[in-house]
Design brief:
Radius of gyration: 19 Å
Distance between the termini: 51 Å
Shape: globular
Largest sheet: 3 strands, antiparallel
Strand order of the largest sheet: 1-6-5
């Protein structure tokens, strides 16, 4: 309980009484029209290094948290245990390759392991520590 004798709490986000740092949502950056990103012809996947395993079959505990401007879902999920070593541990943010294929087919490719990958740079999505060329 806060009384008048307590020192003021620092302002962090919407609720000044909250002691936790505010949640920072993943960032969707707009880099112009999708046609500008794909004007070079073929896939940019090899150039950007922004491809991620995005096959629905690799994921569990999937929760839709938003909608991309192209109309596809934005999700939080966990990779299934058999794929965590390769694809990532803990809660992840991303899209579903099957949805991406319907609106931007050149952004989704089949990996040699038989699962689909998505080039997130073509969707205008970057992850911490990733650079966009």
């Amino acid at each position: 309980m806060i009384t008048n004798n307590d020192p003021p709490l620092p302002s962090v986000g919407i609720n000044a009484k909250c002691k936790k740092a505010p949640y920072l949502a993943p960032v969707l950056r707009a880099y112009g029209a999708v046609s500008q990103l794909t004007a070079g012809g073929g896939s940019m996947m090899a150039d950007t290094g922004s491809q991620q395993m995005s096959d629905r079959a690799l994921k569990e505990n999937v929760v839709r948290i938003g909608t991309h401007p192209l109309g596809i879902g934005l999700y939080l999920f966990d990779y299934k245990p058999a794929f965590r070593e390769q694809s990532g541990f803990g809660r992840q943010f991303g899209v579903m390759a099957d949805e991406v294929e319907t609106v931007l087919p050149q952004a989704a490719v089949m990996h040699p392991n038989g699962y689909k990958m998505v080039d997130y740079a073509l969707l205008g999505i970057t992850f911490p520590g990733q650079t966009v060329h």
